[in-house]
């Protein structure tokens, strides 16, 4: 099964948004957001993010368990070379069970001393049952949870449904570990056993599946309220506005943007300052090219960087590293010209 669908990609973006649907969901869960992303992919904030949807089986007949199956599939996606090498920041947006899955993934990495593999620094959970569904749905889940204790029935029952029960192992782990010292809002020394990130939970005021208390999550989480229902097909514009605001300000490189705007008013000094750095990078990639040709391309790259960075800011990188990464990615397109 293909577990990823790309919604928008750009060679120069170093930030990724991953959408994770909930129980019995699929890509249609995100139709309202996909339309927004694709219609505004040249506008902030979407212009500076690549976006993809993680999809997994979740039907009445087929429900791979969250652990280990779905966590393994998500791990293969996020640690794949194409993603790990390209992105410096990853945002998970999960609906309902998708929010549980995203947080369990982070917890499992922390508990296995692998938190330093994570580039996830923002998790947004929409109508997520951190403490199980509403009381009457949780009561209904009691039957399959009891039957699951019978060995020959265990794998025949809906595994994902069972994992959403208030007393399930998955939700117990959320309660036990979604807190300091396992996760932190501030940078930490030991990045293997604790992960620094921001967590936002969106509560639906008209949600009849997940109560406000359950969707609010834990003290570590920040909370936003909307008048939305549980179903994403009826997602209100309020959720979209919250997402746009969070993404726009997430790791916003304010200082670097200020520097870029400042250099834009003094291009000659800017070229004199950074041209040697770009020339060294180009020489390393194009050993046979003439110096005059390299100099022309170095200046062209530096000028285009000023424009492109304002439209597609690269997060978590100081100015020199941003220029170097921009040149590295652009160099792939120059190969036919300079070699």
Termini, distance in Å? 40 Å
Order of helices and strands: EEHEHHEHEHHHHHEEEHEHHHHH
The CATH superfamily of the largest domain appears as Alpha/Beta hydrolase fold, catalytic domain
Count the domains: 2
Question: Roughly how many Å is the radius of gyration?
Answer: 23 Å
In which order are the strands of the major sheet placed? Answer: 1-3-2-4-5-8-9
Got a strand count? 9
What is the name of the CATH topology of the largest domain? Rossmann fold
State the shape: elongated
Average pLDDT: 90
Name the structural class: alpha/beta
- What's the CATH first level of the largest domain? Alpha Beta
Number of helices: 15
Largest sheet: 7 strands, mixed
Helix fraction, binned, reads 40-55%
Poorly predicted regions: none
Can you tell me the CATH architecture of the largest domain? 3-Layer(aba) Sandwich
